[in-house]
């Protein structure tokens, strides 16, 4: 039961949320170590360099705020502020240690500097990595036997349910992060791009909620008729599209 509860929490948080939780706890630990540093610890080269730039309580406050921000946005769709703050602090910490090693104030500071910069690079990579959004949490996301595809404002696939794999032949790892145009014949792609541009400009979709007959493109190159229902919704990250797709004809058996 405990293992199931942990799995559910991790699934809900996702890759980005788990990363923020890790950095949040690390930041809290750093804040505590700076605020509660013993006199002999404050005398070490690393702490002396930090204190020369700003009082240790200031550094502790910065890490504390960063940690709180990361932990607060673990389960939020809009987490860019937390990622930006955490990445900035990690890079700043790394640069301070590297400069202190270069100046001779902390000869072994380059080791810590490299570690902090690697952490900062890793977090920046996670921040730009598309998250596979949990479909059941999105409007229109309970598609039953329908394929459900979630895409961002640029038409890049963010989420892909098992029925979509059965219908189009692409696995989740193959589909997430790629453009929606992979699911349609080439003759429709220019029209699709123009439609996305109109929605971005007007911030509304005239097709939202309507059942649209279209042609889908399977991974093997074959075309088949589909019925598409699109919902467009807004978040801090911009417009997100949820498409519920059913095959009309030969591929109905694939989606139940």
Summarize the structure in words.
The chain is α+β, with helices and mostly antiparallel strands and 256 residues long. The protein folds into two domains: 2-127, no CATH class; 135-255, 2-Layer Sandwich (Beta-Lactamase). The chain is built from ten helices and five strands. The protein has a five-stranded antiparallel beta sheet. A hairpin with a 5-residue loop joins strand 3 (211-217) and strand 4.
How is this fold's topology laid out?
Elements: H1 2-35, H2 39-42, H3 45-53, H4 56-72, H5 80-103, H6 109-127, E1 147-152, E2 157-160, H7 162-168, H8 172-175, H9 189-202, E3 211-217, E4 223-235, E5 238-247, H10 252-255
Antiparallel strand pairs: 1-2, 1-5, 3-4, 4-5
Largest sheet data: 5 strands, antiparallel
- The N- and C-terminal alpha carbons lie at a distance of 31 Å
Number of helices: 10
Number of strands: 5
Shape: elongated
Identify the strand order in the major beta sheet: 2-1-5-4-3
What number is the mean pLDDT? 81
* Oligomer class: single chain
Strand portion, in percent? Answer: 15-25%
Low-confidence residue ranges: 3-7, 132-144, 251-256
Element order, helices and strands?
A: HHHHHHEEHHHEEEH
Write down the domain tally: 2
Helix content: 40-55%
Helix and strand content put the structural class at alpha+beta
- The whole-angstrom Rg is 24 Å
